[in-house]
Design a protein that fits this description.
The complex is a heterodimer of chains A (108) and B (117). In chain A, strands 1, 3, 4, 7, 8 and 9 form a 6-stranded mixed β-sheet that branches. In chain A, strands 2-6-5 form a 3-stranded antiparallel β-sheet, with no helix packed on it. In chain A, a hairpin with a 4-residue loop joins β7 and β8. Chain A is mainly beta and 108 residues long. Chain A is built from no helices and 9 strands. Chain B is an all-beta fold and 117 residues long. The N and C termini of chain B lie far apart (39 Å). Classes of the chains: A mainly beta (108), B mainly beta (117). Chains A and B meet through β3 and β8 of A and β5 and β10 of B.
């Protein structure tokens, strides 16, 4: 089964840039989706297909994907961005979605 | 406005069968390309995908849970169902349903299911 690896936690000061990584074997050849989950809430799609943003998601959220690492970048971080972030791809061999283990973003 | 809402029992005894319902609004599961997935999250843990059903009745299951899961739909009622047999306390989790087009783009609020005797 395809495995996605995320750092358990990332910390950043307000106004700075946060980068959340998602590692996987040749992940650059797959489409990566990113979800934000605030405490007690359902996940929200913030980036789909590597770098596209759904309607209503601020431009501060962006994504990239190459080689063995996909990255969610949050510019000008705000206190309200504090949440868990999950990456997700489709496992083509086993034909099903796969989620990463999640990264807790702390705004200092 | 697209919404999904999960419903079902909040408490289930070990070995029983759990059935959850996802009621869809604002879109149809008969639209080509659309799917609805089930994802769960044990308290304090990560998201775990369980099952997925598409507009054409194509179905996919988590390999580790496949023998215990069944996903079905009633397009006329705009509902999707998940059945999990032989539940165990480790199945205690918040269960979400979510619409899938490009990623899971809309999620329900989730329903907490506790498995305990």
């Amino acid at each position: 089964s395809y495995v996605l690896t995320q750092p358990p936690s990332v910390s950043v000061a307000p106004g700075q840039t946060a980068r959340v990584t998602c590692g996987g074997n040749k992940i650059g050849s797959r489409s990566v989706h990113w979800y934000q989950q605030k405490a007690g809430q359902a996940p929200v799609l913030v980036v789909y297909e590597d770098s596209d943003r759904p309607s209503g998601i601020p431009e501060r959220f962006s994504g990239s994907n190459s080689g063995n690492t996909a990255t969610l970048t949050i510019s000008r971080v705000e206190a309200g961005d504090e949440a868990d972030y999950y990456c997700q791809v489709w496992d083509n061999i086993n034909d099903h979605p796969v989620f990463g283990g999640g990264t807790q973003l702390t705004v200092l | 406005q697209i919404t999904l809402k999960e419903s079902g029992p909040t408490l289930v005894k070990p070995t029983q069968t759990l059935t959850l319902t996802c009621t869809l609004s604002g879109f149809s599961l008969s639209t080509p390309g659309v799917g609805v997935g089930w994802i769960r999250q044990p308290p304090g843990k990560a998201l775990e995908w369980l099952a997925l059903i598409y507009w054409d009745d194509g179905k996919y299951y988590s390999p580790s849970l496949k023998s215990r899961l069944t996903v079905t739909k009633d397009t006329s009622k705009n509902q999707v169902f998940l059945t999990m047999t032989n539940v165990d306390p480790v199945d205690t989790a918040t269960y979400f349903c979510a619409k899938k087009t490009h990623g899971f783009d809309y999620w329900g609020q989730g329903t907490l299911v506790t498995v305990s005797s």
